[in-house]
Amino acid sequence: MTDEQGGSWAQMLAPGRRGAVTVLAGGTLMFAVDTYVTASLLPSAVAEIGGAAFYAWPTTLFLLAAVVASSLTSRVLATVAAARAYLVALGVFAVGALIDAVAPTMAVLLFGRVVQGLGGGLLAAMGYALIRVALPRTLWTRGSAVIAAMWGVALVVGPGVGGLLAEYASWRWAFGALVVGSLVIAAIVPSALHRARAPISPGPFPVGSVLLVGAAAGVLSLAGLAARPLVAGLGLLVALVLLVLFVVHERRTPAAVLPRATFRPGSPLRWVYGLMAVLVGVSGVEAFVPLVGQQVAGLDPVFAGFLGVALGAGWVLGEMISASARRPRPRVLGGPVLLAAGTVLVAVTLLTLDGTAGVVLWAVGLLAGGIGIGTAWPHLAASAIGGAEPVSDQEERDEGEADKASAAVTTVQMLAVSVGTALGGVGLALGGADPVASARWLFATFAAVAVVGALAARPASRGV
């Protein structure tokens, strides 16, 4: 076995691994592309089927359903072979995408999004859960980087493809493409995962935790519907209280999303998960970039969609460079600072500039923010996956807690994006009916959250 620094990208593609890595990355990519392609399609979809007041809901409901499904991953893999579980997840996801493709109204579209979320949540969670059994520990960071990079790839592919289809064809074709992609991945699942056996022990379903975070996202979504600054601000306050209650509940309940080690005295794992939530939550701003690009900058759908490529391209670039770093702590310290700087740049630009110069600076800020996320993410994810491992030779390894730590990476990711997307709806509502004011509030809100993440980077780096 190689040492901690000995894992290589070539080893990731060794015989017996490349198929599993391809499937796990592909399933995550389907889920992630769906998340972000919807952002560039929604303006066109709303124009055709109505439901403008529910603009943030297709993403929020999709991710909340995914959270519920991802929380069931341990139970599914404990009772069903990995290959069969993956096929079921792909099938449910494809059915949801098909419903979206033919949806005549917003209500039907929202139903399809829930179905897709259930299948996609299993796909995304199984990606991280099976890293531990498909790869040696020396490759966990690179495995996390490959799967997390699929989110970055989705941020590049999703807005661009969605914008092109919205302008030159039909937004419905994007969901049809996801059906086809799911079938292609399903064709190679039996051979790729036939040896995968996940020693996962199902624990109690975290009903309370999921309900609290779901309620926070729901309150934010409803506050965004009100289109009144006072109601939006009140909704934000209530959501913050619910998130605090989530943390309190997680500390006390055995049916938790996070492993027990998160709240061990002196453990930095709580900061690791917290920083991960901030990084991914801020990336939720991408759901609104096409809308802002069209309404504020007057961009065509395709160009507004490609504006969203900036954050995704930065994420992928930062991820691939940082995953091989031998000194991860400086990356965990610097990544959130870069994210904060990028989002602040966009927020300030909206206050001071417009026209081509403003759009260019938006792209620069989003690119810098994406690099910041990608720089820190693989090290945070690998630390979270191994966070429930024994800290001394005297402690026994708890397989169930180790599995929970793996699954929690995806659960935290989806919870954060769902809350982040709903928070974006509140930001728009704070600006009232003025698109420019709404855009300013939107990016100012995300910039404030990113600054909080930069402040949390130092304690989180102690856990890397």
Topology:
Blueprint: H1 9-12, H2 18-49, H3 57-71, H4 73-79, H5 82-102, H6 106-134, H7 140-168, H8 172-192, H9 207-226, H10 229-252, H11 269-283, H12 289-295, H13 301-307, H14 309-322, H15 328-352, H16 355-385, H17 399-430, H18 435-461
Domain Major facilitator superfamily (MFS) profile: 20-462
Transmembrane segments: 21-42, 54-73, 85-111, 117-135, 147-165, 171-193, 205-224, 230-248, 269-289, 301-321, 333-353, 359-377, 414-433, 439-457
Subcellular location: Cell membrane
List keywords for this structure.
membrane, Growth Hormone, Chain: A, 464 residues, globular, transmembrane
Description:
- This protein has 464 residues and is mainly α.
- It has a single domain, classed as Growth Hormone, Chain: A, CATH 1.20.1250.
- Helix content is 78%, strand content 0%.
- The protein has helices spanning 9-12, 18-49, 57-71, 73-79, 82-102, 106-134, 140-168, 172-192, 207-226, 229-252, 269-283, 289-295, 301-307, 309-322, 328-352, 355-385, 399-430, 435-461.
- Helix 15 (328-352) packs antiparallel against helix 16 (355-385).
- The longest helix is centred in the first third of the chain and has 32 residues, at 18-49.
- It is globular, with a radius of gyration of 20 Å.
- The chain starts with 8 loop residues before the first helix and ends with a helix.
- The model is unreliable at 1-6 and 390-397 (pLDDT under 50).
- This is MFS transporter.
- It is found in: Cell membrane.
